[in-house]
Specification:
Shape: elongated
Strand order of the largest sheet: 1-2
CATH superfamily of the largest domain: Fumarase/aspartase (Central domain)
CATH class of the largest domain: Mainly Alpha
Radius of gyration: 31 Å
Distance between the termini: 53 Å
Order of helices and strands: HHHHHHEEHEHEHHEHHEHHHHHHH
CATH architecture of the largest domain: Up-down Bundle
Largest sheet: 2 strands, antiparallel
Structural class: mainly alpha
Strand content: under 5%
CATH topology of the largest domain: Fumarase C, Chain A, domain 2
Number of domains: 3
Length: 457
């Protein structure tokens, strides 16, 4: 019989019981549920709401359940409605009537809220550590490729010269923001809802500061209705995970392009590639493709919970049981993607000569040629037009700016002299971009130092 069955005359239909049950997925909250119950029982004893003896028996019983679950001596029961009922049932079986006092001054509504917040506090830290691990992989790539010149792109067209280090450090900036977002989310969810009851607190003289202190929350919720009906923290985390996955998906797209024959900029390690069932020559980038695909799945988890919450009146509604599967799925997929992506980056090979050869194509030093004329006193728009004409001339004559003779340059402007060749040298083009945040060696080293400081914190 269900613990809430007092006013019911009929047993719950078996199919309804299965449909209503959440133990299959919320059992992963067992540690947080028991931790929250230990804090609650301790507070009840200290406030004289239950006897010190009963409080001690409950705490000891809960610790025994936790130990038995973790060492495999206790299995989850399919008959239990959820993790909260399972723990309370086992506790009462083990210690008798004292176990029935655990739920005094508490509802499953504030119980699940505190469990979920305890779990997500830990998960924010775990995801943040995985993102920092990925940042470490990017850092190693950057340090190895400070001088590796390559074309930067806009509209997927070769645009201006950069370095491979500068390119991948752009992704480092994205993931640094992700760490910051996770920290903000963790700060806002660090508010304890336990003591809110079903929705209107309790008539018992509880002390919420005792449980807050035991559980390590920053502060307590100020409104009991919001305390049990709030899922903003879960939505925030789902948004954070969606942005992380979007960043991973963009990076995956680069990896997929770069290891194609058409680009040939990198090669993935055999351990992070697969073959074809029919084409023996194939080496497929399945890992980044799967990461790119799983991005949509995490987006779906965010949309799921947004849709669940959009029409709910206050306070708790059973719809909110749908929060956990979405969050658990997003966490599981984001964490495995972060982990395997880091390992993939650690083992890939950067083809530096191919990157440099690509840089020699596409007139990516055209802006530098225009800047050369501007520094000679010509207005930029006039210089732009002249270099546009030079590019058209090169295309027509199958030449590059580097292979034009000085005489050919002078037919377009008398301002050209031997200095043009230094100005359009790709390494020089990169290193002259010394503005903070640019691709010069000096600037890139500052970016690397900033990332090192972040990872050392």
């Amino acid at each position: 019989m269900k613990m809430w069955a007092g006013r019911f005359k009929k047993e719950l239909d078996s199919s309804v019981n299965d449909f209503n049950s959440s133990l299959s997925f919320d059992k992963r909250l067992y540690r947080e549920d028991i931790t929250g119950s230990i804090a609650h029982a301790t507070m009840l004893g200290k406030c004289g709401i239950i006897s010190p003896e009963d409080s001690e028996k409950i705490v000891a019983g809960l610790k025994g359940i936790l130990s038995d679950l973790e060492n495999g001596k206790l299995a989850f029961s399919d008959d239990a409605e959820d993790i909260h009922m399972f723990v309370e049932q086992v506790l009462t079986e083990r210690i008798g009537d004292a176990g029935k006092r655990l739920h005094t001054a508490r509802s499953r509504n504030d119980q699940v809220a505190v469990d979920f917040k305890l779990y997500l506090k830990k998960e924010c830290e775990e995801v943040s550590l995985l993102v920092k691990g990925l940042l470490g992989s990017i850092l190693r790539l950057a340090k190895d490729n400070v001088g590796t010149v390559m074309p930067g792109y806009t509209h997927l067209q070769r645009a201006q010269p950069v370095t491979f280090a500068h390119y991948v450090l752009a992704y480092a900036e994205m993931f640094k923001r992700d760490v910051s977002r996770l920290s903000d989310t963790a700060y806002r969810l660090d508010v304890m809802p336990l003591g809110s009851g079903a929705l209107s607190s309790t008539t018992y003289p509880i002390d919420r500061e005792i449980t807050r202190d035991i559980l390590g929350f920053r502060e307590i919720t100020l409104n009991s209705i919001d305390g049990v009906s709030d899922r903003d923290y879960a939505l925030e985390l789902l948004f954070d995970l969606s942005v992380i996955m979007m960043h991973l998906s963009r990076f995956s797209e680069e990896i997929i392009l770069w290891c194609s024959s058409e680009f040939g900029f990198i090669e993935l390690d055999d351990a992070y590639s697969t073959g074809s069932s029919i084409m023996p020559q194939k080496k497929n980038p399945d890992i980044p493709e799967l990461v790119r695909g799983k991005c949509g799945r995490v987006y779906g988890d965010l949309h799921t919970l947004l849709t669940v919450m959009k029409g709910l009146p206050l306070a708790y509604n059973k719809d909110m049981q749908e929060d956990k599967e979405a969050v658990f799925d997003a966490l599981d997929n984001t964490k495995i993607c972060l982990s395997i992506f880091s390992s993939m980056l650690d083992t890939l090979t950067v083809k530096k000569e191919e990157l440099r050869r690509a840089g020699n194509k596409g007139f990516i030093n055209a802006t530098d040629a225009a800047d050369y004329l501007v520094k000679k006193g010509m207005p930029f728009r006039d210089a732009y037009k002249i270099i546009g004409g030079l590019v058209a001339y090169c295309i027509e004559n199958k030449k590059t700016l580097d292979t034009l003779s000085l005489e050919e340059y002078k037919t377009f402007s008398g301002l050209f002299d031997e200095g043009i060749y230094k100005s359009i040298d790709l390494v020089n083009c990169v290193n002259e971009r010394k503005a903070a945040g640019g691709p010069s060696e000096e600037s890139v080293k500052r970016q690397i130092e900033a990332l090192e400081r972040l990872l050392a914190e």
